[in-house]
Write a structure and sequence with these properties.
With 269 residues, the chain is an alpha+beta fold. The chain folds into 2 domains: 76 residues, no CATH class; 180 residues, Exo-inulinase, domain 1 (Jelly Rolls), CATH 2.60.120. 13% of the residues lie in helices and 29% in strands. Strands 1, 3, 4, 6, 9, 10, 11 and 13 form an 8-stranded antiparallel beta sheet that branches. The protein has a 5-stranded antiparallel beta sheet with strand order 2-5-12-7-8, with no helix packed on it. Strand 3 and strand 4 form a beta hairpin. The radius of gyration is 27 Å and the shape is globular.
Length: 269
Amino acid sequence: MYGRKFCPNSDYGGKPLSKRFLRLANGTTPHFPASVNRHSVALGRYGLLLKNISMKNNMLFLAAALFVFGCNTNKSTNKAAKAEDGWISIFDGKTLNGWKAVENPATFSVADGAIMVHGPRAHLFYDGAVNNHDFKNFDWKATVKTMPGANSGMFIHTAYQNTGWPGKGYEIQVNQTHTDWRKTGSVYAMQDVKETYVKDGDWYTEQITVQGNKVTIRINDKIINEYAEPDSVSQSNSRKKLSSGTVALQGHDPKSIVYFKDIMIRPLP
């Protein structure tokens, strides 16, 4: 409501409260009768004109003012903690705003706070405002659930294309029991994982860290794959290499059902 925070007045060791500080939203300065206890001036900043307030009610108003002040302080602290942590949500849990689906858009829908992937081949590219959807060094994570026989993927350093499998960047595999032997955490066809670390039907976290020429994949916070891109790849003309770009989710086939939620990204220096 106001840019300045409440400070105790001179009765309590703080600076005197000026009329400018107590000015209401309509530009007027409230009048506080002499009978009004000085505690109540705290509410002046919220646009409340106090008249003939008893000491009992005055203390109630003070408690309310301090509660609101405390809430604002907590919000500031939470924002600071979030900024320090650096993670940014790129899925609002309700819509596909900020994402662009291609080929078969109906493959992607939102159900119970998650992106449900079920249908013919399609890809869902992040097209939102964070970093102008262009990432080089970053962390990307999602809470994922695969159903039996499902296959999907999380693409990095990729680019929007209308049809086909994305030709730019890498796919990080999402697959526990699909017939493809490359399992969850594989840097697809570059450094593959044969073991499975989670079960179909269970929620788990899949986190991808890209830093320089290195890609690290964590499943439930455990590192399961570390890929260092060789010079022979990074210096080649291939588009399947680390560079920069957006991220995307894969719809693999009509039989696969996969869920993604709590999708977050953290740009790194």
